[in-house]
Write a structure and sequence with these properties.
The protein is of the alpha/beta class and 338 residues long. Helix content is 42%, strand content 12%. The radius of gyration is 19 Å and the shape is globular. This is beta-N-acetylhexosaminidase.
Length: 338
Amino acid sequence: MSESKAMILGSSGPTLTADEVALYRDERPWGFILFARNCVEPAQITDLVASMRDAIGRPDAPVLIDQEGGRVQRIRPPMIERYPSAAVLGELYRQDRDKGLRATWLMSRLHAFDLLKFGINVDCLPVLDVPIEGASNVIGDRAYGFDPKTVAEMGQAAADGLKAGGMLPVMKHIPGHGRGMADSHHELPVVTVSRAELEAHDFLPFVAMKNELMAMSAHIVFTAIDPDEPATISRKVIDEIIRGHIGFDGLLMSDDTSMNALKGTIGERAARIVGGGCDIVLHCNGVMDEMKAVVKEAIPLGGEALRRARAVEAAFGAGDGLSEDAIRAEFHGLLAVS
């Protein structure tokens, strides 16, 4: 069978259309991503995930979701309980470091219980961005704190909880979205501080977690490194900072191609993502014309990108066999005393 293409695609609704099945079958995305529009009720989610994998003939294909807690939680009550934001966990950490770390691990372990029931095996968590005062609220309470040490320690606990449950994490948004004064869904943030300041603050959580297997890029310009291109499409940022200074050698996926921080047509954006050095082009909104433009630019996985993708595929585990009821009770007990 021919190799998967270096892309992750979404879908338009709760069931696949015939056109989506045909596109997936013919173009072979490496994986898929779900959003709230795809998640209506439990059996439907399970069926959708299975049908995505069936379309490409890969029963273990990665299926991603942003299930952070707080305002970024794609599957919500009554299907899955409402979880607190990273900021709430960060406040517990500031009161009692051990309790904060434990609660963060437990919540990720609960994400694994919740999501694997549907066949979802990748959670786009932890958020390792370190906000500064006055930054755009696009990160806001999605961050664990305002200092790199808190963010790194809490991020590691979150990643470890997912892995203990048999899921894999995706660090975001490398090399750091915390200074963005604009929402990259709508416009391009530009960060003008020195490289030394970035290395001493923004990049630190990613350095601490550089051995994780997946990360998602930031649609942000760092003028001290590349004044012309956002990190997602900047060969200089990816080679010198993400691969070089940070030392991340895992699978690097773009943030969503349809976000308007990136300029040009969807096809042009996808081509620049490929050319900049990201391993995987991520496209989320399920709009068929946009997906067709992405698949024209995406390339088959090969070389280092293929090696990294295979390392991800080999890392999915069976989980630690812990009791969901016990984990859930401990988690709520910690939150109740905070």
